[in-house]
Amino acid sequence: MWRLPLLRSWSIDPIVSPELPQTPQHVRLVKLVLSGSKLTDEYDPLDSLKDLPNLLYLSIINDANYEGESLNFEDGDFEGLEELELGYLHSLSSITVHSKAVPSLKKLHLRDIPELKTVPFSIQHLKNLEHLNYQN
Known about the structure:
Layout: E1 9-12, E2 31-35, E3 57-61, E4 70-73, E5 83-87, E6 94-97, E7 107-111, E8 131-135
Parallel strand pairs: 1-2, 2-3, 3-5, 4-6, 5-7, 7-8
């Protein structure tokens, strides 16, 4: 993997390998877009991204191949994240946000996630949430 220590914005469309690059060399990233990434339940995309200290915007979209049924935001995950976009994830049926996860989140976009029948109740923990966009 390339070493790009000053990289601040990265759009990946699509990922050839289901594994995302290791994050230590990308600590300055503030924006990450994953599109058509072919991620599966076996490889949790959140696990390798949750500790990026400067990440403000994360988008996981256009992934008709995503086979994962759930995304789980654990306590301490994505402490600086301000905007999250999830869209076109056709197998995703549940999103869980633990009480101390994504504490800085201000904007949440959930688009075209047909198996997600309702807005996740656990978003009540998002105390700084100002904007919720839910389109199914």
